[in-house]
Design brief:
Strand order of the largest sheet: 2-1-3-4-5-6
Structural class: alpha/beta
Order of helices and strands: EHEHEHEHEHEHHHHH
CATH architecture of the largest domain: 3-Layer(aba) Sandwich
Keywords: DNA-binding, Phosphoprotein
InterPro entries: CheY-like_superfamily, Sig_transdc_resp-reg_C-effctor, Sig_transdc_resp-reg_receiver, Tscrpt_reg_LuxR_C, WalR-like
CATH class of the largest domain: Alpha Beta
Low-confidence stretches: none
Number of helices: 10
Strand content: 5-15%
Distance between the termini: 36 Å
Protein name: Transcriptional regulatory protein DesR
CATH superfamily of the largest domain: Response regulator
GO biological process, one term: phosphorelay signal transduction system
Largest sheet: 6 strands, parallel
GO molecular function: DNA binding
Radius of gyration: 18 Å
Shape: elongated
């Protein structure tokens, strides 16, 4: 029996996935969570074979949680299941050492097969997305610039970002200016749009 922890913040989607996976005789959902910060504690408590994780979770995002699982519980495979198929997300996922990356529009049978493959220690990646990622533009932003832009994308201004990252307001403004320049964007809003389209946030 393959034991899985399921992390999905949309209640209806999570319920549907649990119902679908329950139909598989060799897969058992031992826990399900709807917040990113609950993923690693659930893995610690239930010690599943595979954690099935959405990227866009409240609190800690799914890729950060996947990286934590890899560090703390290397025997647990991680399968990202997402609607966000940008090549940048796949690159971030591979950097987080995930075991698989699957789009939510895939047939249910593909999800079950991907879980089985990850449980066997295999790597599963949507082939079209892998080709797109191979030819995609590399993220020109530094990790700190990504942090700044991610907070800006959440609606924070320079004065709100500064204390969160232990920076001065002037330094945050300098980061935002550099980000706009690096991305060839017209302004901060355009930079956020470009970075989101590439999956860098």
């Amino acid at each position: 029996m393959i034991r899985i922890v399921l992390a999905e913040d949309m209640h209806m989607v999570r319920g549907a996935l649990i119902a679908l996976l329950t139909l598989e005789g060799d897969i058992h959902v031992v826990a399900d969570v709807d917040r990113g910060e609950d993923i690693i504690p659930a893995v610690a408590e239930h010690r599943p074979d595979v954690a099935v994780i959405d990227i866009d979770m409240p609190g800690i995002d799914g890729l950060t949680a996947a990286a934590g699982i890899h560090e703390q519980f290397p025997s647990c495979g991680t399968l990202i299941v997402t609607t966000f198929g940008q090549p940048g997300n796949l690159r971030r996922a591979l950097e987080s050492r995930v075991s698989g990356f699957l789009m939510k529009h895939s047939p249910p049978s593909e999800l079950a097969d991907a879980i089985r493959a990850v449980a066997r220690g295999e790597v599963v990646i949507d082939p079209q997305l892998a080709m797109d990622a191979w030819s995609a533009r590399t993220n020109p932003l530094t990790p700190r610039e990504v942090e700044v832009l991610r907070l800006a994308a959440q609606g924070a201004d320079s004065r709100e970002i500064a204390p969160k990252l232990y920076l001065s307001v002037g330094t945050v403004r300098n980061y935002l200016t550099a980000i706009v320049s690096k991305l060839g964007a017209r302004n901060r809003v355009d930079a956020i749009r470009l970075a989101q389209e590439q999956g860098w946030l």
